[in-house]
Amino acid sequence: MLPGGKIPGHFYEKLHQWEEAKRVYEEELIIERQSRNQIREASKPDGLRQPSRRRREATLGRMRCLEELGEWSLINDILEGDDVCSWTKANEELKVSMSRMAASSAWGNDDVTKMSSYVDYIARDTFDGLFYRSVLKILQVRHLKAVHSGDKEKEVDKARLVTLYYSEAHDYIHKARDLLSTELAALATESYNRAYGAMVNVQMLAELEEVIQYDLVVEQRECIREMWWKRMNGCQKTVQDWSKLLRVHSLVLEPQHDSKPWLKFASLCRRNGRMAMSAEILKKLQSVITEVSEGVQLKIQIASLKHDWQDDKLEKVKGLKRLRKFVSSNGVKLSQCRSEGRSLLSKCYVMLGSWTEITYGYTTEKLPEILGHYREACNRDSKWYKAWHAFAYTNFEAVLLYKSVSQEAGEPHNPVSSGGSSREVDIVRFCVDAIEGFFRSISLSDGNSLQDTLRLLTLWFDYGEEGRVYDSLVKGLDLIKIENWLQVIPQLIARIDTNRQRVGKLIHKLLCDISKHHPQALIYPLTVAAKSNVTQRRDAALKILDSMKEHSPKLVRQAMLVSEELIRVAILWHELWHEGLEEASRLYFGDRNVKGMFETLEPLHQMLEKGPQTLKETSFQHAYGVELNEALEWCKKYQRTHNVKELTKAWDSYYHVFRRISKQLPMLTSLELQYVSPKLLEARDLELAVPGTYDTKEVVGIQRVHSSFQVITSKQRPRKLSIYGSNGKEYQFVLKGHEDLRQDERVMQLFGLVNSLLLANMDTCRHNLTIQRYSAIPLSTNSGLLGWVPHCDTLHSLIRDYREKKKILLNIEHRIMMRMAPDYDHLTLMQKVEVFEYALDNTTGDDLAKIIWFKSPTSEVWFDRRTNYTRSLAVMSMVGYVLGLGDRHPSNLMLDRESGKIVHIDFGDCFEVAMSREKFPEKIPFRLTRMLINAMEVTGIDGNYRMTCERVMKVLRDNKDSVMAVLEAFVYDPLLNWWLMEGKGVIHIWYRVCIGRAGNRQQKSKVGQRKRHQHRGVVFQRTPGGARQSEGIEYREARER
């Protein structure tokens, strides 16, 4: 660290933060200059003859930064200046250190003479020395050809020199390639990231050879240009790499002859905050604008408008006026051009709509103008996804805004009525336009269309009864492929029993169409709905299953068989009775609720009366049937006589059965299918797809189910099973009873969207930030299958095994606390904190850090795993915060043994329901305890963790409409939102995704008025915890459990 705790410049260099590094070095030079002046004033000229070590390092550091920023003239100023570090006054050692940057500067300034003198100081046996010598030879050829003498003899001599220079350049390139081959062979075996830089250098050498070929063979120039463009698109989208490659291309290709990569590079610089470099590129393109075609001129002007808009020096209103002026003056010209011109005009209209929205926000006054711009964009280029998406989304926002304003005015909201107020008519109009736009955007989408489809469903379910909306829905269904609906099958099934006739009719028609083309995708969700306790829902599902039997009867039979048998194995009679008796006991002895007790026991006795179907059920009936029937008789007598003694005798029998089952359940470690489900054991070579594997291209059928299920030791006793597919692979699952997995299924939808957003963003796509997902297949309302996450262990099991090996007590922290304060529960809050901190001070909390270290075979593997661990923890911290995810104890966090990534499981507590628990409410935004922090890098949270958190939250907020579409699907889903409606507080989602930080108040003012009101029956309001946590990441110590 520098004096005063300042961060050294080379730290910023390693992070590629060149502007910051340059600022630090310039500050050091100012300080050094001041100290030199003091020496001069003290009449000590001997101290001024040579630059100090500090000045030398600061100058070299500044030159490195200027090289990366492409500021060649400033490097030249340093070299030509009157300073002790200038080229003429520098000693030989300093010249060697400066030579590479000096040569690069001379290349950038197109000064061959100076470059020749600088290159002589770069060692010949290095890559830089050979590379810059080859570049120098090519530049010398270019300058030689620029001179036209008219003398034939001189022209012959010139041709000889060209051949000689190119031959020497080839020699240097071959030698440089030989140097790189050894380095690349070593790095390629280690990791892609370490070898990538060497690969870019290899590409630069190859393209230097192609530069020579480009100059000599005119016929191949177009082909080489296309090849260069394809290669650049295959590289990582980093300013550093693109700058290197474009400099090589510029040896023979001026920007006016190939503006496309330069415009793309300017955009890349702008997106990475390199505004000065972007401005320099655009300035260069503007200087040759008269030499390019009219279409390219317009592209350069648009790029300049984008640059000025993003540059903070320009007011947004002025930028918007300039864009309007450009469109008005060039609109007619562009609209008369070919498809490229119309496409360019469409992009301008989208920019107009977006900039108007950013400047003025969504208001009833500005909405018509914004929508008009987006409508024009769609008209100019009807095949462009972004235009239709923007048009649809803005209409969707208009629906919500007008609905909010209507509610604020106290007007009754009736989306089904054909008449009504003018505002209701506007809402329907916006709705029809939004539906048209979403259908078009979905049909044109080549990537993830989940957010558009979910928005469409929201409008469909809310306004589908209105005549014009219904007609637009019917018309739009023919526009998109049936495969687009596969991603929202859970949402369609959730509304299968709607009481709205038109909406229900259209859902039924769509599900029938899906069943004809993709019956495998629909069969599992339909079998769940067919088991519903709600008559209307069950009948609607059975109706669709009946229609499926007409074209896929065998598949339906197999699905019903597999589903019923898996449910049977998920919860055995022993477990059903154990759980039922426990609940009935609580109702009777705890709540004195006799009626509730009978309602709990009645279905269990009915199940017993139907008789056993497996050997396991038969053994249960033999073991407990007599006592349970006796208890039933006593219950019936009580119902006739209301004599409490009869009920007491019944509970004597129930209690005896309960005790025997309680002793038997711990011994249940495995289940053999021949005893618990012979039908499932006999099922072979089924048409039915392996759960969670359905792919439209290839269906992997169930070949057989493994004959033995392992019972996992936990409270709910889930089963681990294996299903063998028709492709010969083994698929492992966890079969869970007593849990509704439909919410896990929706969470996996959200994770899929987040992954696609992270992969599409330039800042996050290169850092392996995707969330580990697994398949979630509900079988009924209280059972289902979860895909087994391979090579993962829970943090609880890892820490337990580690402490057992090291002879450390598993609950050492708790023991220390109890030793200090045996009556801990009766202490005041401050006393509890003191005891807690005492336990922290007397334990290291580095168990997880050591586990990752001990389980890594090499230091490089350890470094990669630690980095993946830190980043994956950061990603899920942010996504979990947005989702309001709770119950993150060490048994719900897993560590991937190979990659080091953190994997989350069990998503039962979402939307901060854990915060409103009566006992032990969770008031933290996410889990970030001492043990988790200690396993990170040396800087703790102030490193990869913080940067990843900020990047992920930026991606989520930049794509807030997509994230909100999935989150709103949770809230509006009638199968999931009951607990949101019944809770004490309703969770505010919007401000987390869209605001969250104090600096975004402008956005808050735009949407705040609408979002504070009722939003489809759910009130979004600030929670006490949310108001505090939104200003930043809150880190709290919490005890490891």
UniProtKB/TrEMBL annotation:
<dbReference type="GO" id="GO:0016242">
    <property type="term" value="P:negative regulation of macroautophagy"/>
</dbReference>
<feature type="domain" description="FAT">
    <location>
        <begin position="149"/>
        <end position="532"/>
    </location>
</feature>
<comment type="similarity">
    <text>Belongs to the PI3/PI4-kinase family.</text>
</comment>
<dbReference type="GO" id="GO:0004674">
    <property type="term" value="F:protein serine/threonine kinase activity"/>
</dbReference>
<feature type="domain" description="PI3K/PI4K catalytic">
    <location>
        <begin position="705"/>
        <end position="1023"/>
    </location>
</feature>
<dbReference type="Pfam" id="PF08771">
    <property type="entry name" value="FRB_dom"/>
</dbReference>
<dbReference type="InterPro" id="IPR057564">
    <property type="entry name" value="HEAT_ATR"/>
</dbReference>
<keyword id="KW-0418">Kinase</keyword>
<dbReference type="InterPro" id="IPR050517">
    <property type="entry name" value="DDR_Repair_Kinase"/>
</dbReference>
<dbReference type="InterPro" id="IPR036738">
    <property type="entry name" value="FRB_sf"/>
</dbReference>
<dbReference type="GO" id="GO:0005737">
    <property type="term" value="C:cytoplasm"/>
</dbReference>
<dbReference type="InterPro" id="IPR000403">
    <property type="entry name" value="PI3/4_kinase_cat_dom"/>
</dbReference>
<protein>
    <recommendedName>
        <fullName>non-specific serine/threonine protein kinase</fullName>
        <ecNumber>2.7.11.1</ecNumber>
    </recommendedName>
</protein>
<feature type="region of interest" description="Disordered">
    <location>
        <begin position="1002"/>
        <end position="1041"/>
    </location>
</feature>
<keyword id="KW-0067">ATP-binding</keyword>
<dbReference type="GO" id="GO:0005524">
    <property type="term" value="F:ATP binding"/>
</dbReference>
<dbReference type="Pfam" id="PF00454">
    <property type="entry name" value="PI3_PI4_kinase"/>
</dbReference>
<dbReference type="GO" id="GO:0038202">
    <property type="term" value="P:TORC1 signaling"/>
</dbReference>
<dbReference type="InterPro" id="IPR026683">
    <property type="entry name" value="TOR_cat"/>
</dbReference>
<dbReference type="InterPro" id="IPR014009">
    <property type="entry name" value="PIK_FAT"/>
</dbReference>
<dbReference type="GO" id="GO:0005634">
    <property type="term" value="C:nucleus"/>
</dbReference>
<dbReference type="InterPro" id="IPR003151">
    <property type="entry name" value="PIK-rel_kinase_FAT"/>
</dbReference>
<dbReference type="GO" id="GO:2000243">
    <property type="term" value="P:positive regulation of reproductive process"/>
</dbReference>
<dbReference type="GO" id="GO:0031932">
    <property type="term" value="C:TORC2 complex"/>
</dbReference>
<dbReference type="GO" id="GO:0045930">
    <property type="term" value="P:negative regulation of mitotic cell cycle"/>
</dbReference>
<feature type="compositionally biased region" description="Basic and acidic residues">
    <location>
        <begin position="1031"/>
        <end position="1041"/>
    </location>
</feature>
<dbReference type="InterPro" id="IPR036940">
    <property type="entry name" value="PI3/4_kinase_cat_sf"/>
</dbReference>
<keyword id="KW-0808">Transferase</keyword>
<dbReference type="Pfam" id="PF23593">
    <property type="entry name" value="HEAT_ATR"/>
</dbReference>
<keyword id="KW-0677">Repeat</keyword>
<dbReference type="InterPro" id="IPR009076">
    <property type="entry name" value="FRB_dom"/>
</dbReference>
<dbReference type="InterPro" id="IPR018936">
    <property type="entry name" value="PI3/4_kinase_CS"/>
</dbReference>
<dbReference type="GO" id="GO:0044877">
    <property type="term" value="F:protein-containing complex binding"/>
</dbReference>
<dbReference type="GO" id="GO:0045893">
    <property type="term" value="P:positive regulation of DNA-templated transcription"/>
</dbReference>
<keyword id="KW-0547">Nucleotide-binding</keyword>
<feature type="compositionally biased region" description="Basic residues">
    <location>
        <begin position="1003"/>
        <end position="1016"/>
    </location>
</feature>
<keyword id="KW-0131">Cell cycle</keyword>
<dbReference type="GO" id="GO:0031931">
    <property type="term" value="C:TORC1 complex"/>
</dbReference>
<dbReference type="Pfam" id="PF02259">
    <property type="entry name" value="FAT"/>
</dbReference>
<dbReference type="InterPro" id="IPR011009">
    <property type="entry name" value="Kinase-like_dom_sf"/>
</dbReference>
<dbReference type="GO" id="GO:0045787">
    <property type="term" value="P:positive regulation of cell cycle"/>
</dbReference>
<dbReference type="GO" id="GO:0010605">
    <property type="term" value="P:negative regulation of macromolecule metabolic process"/>
</dbReference>
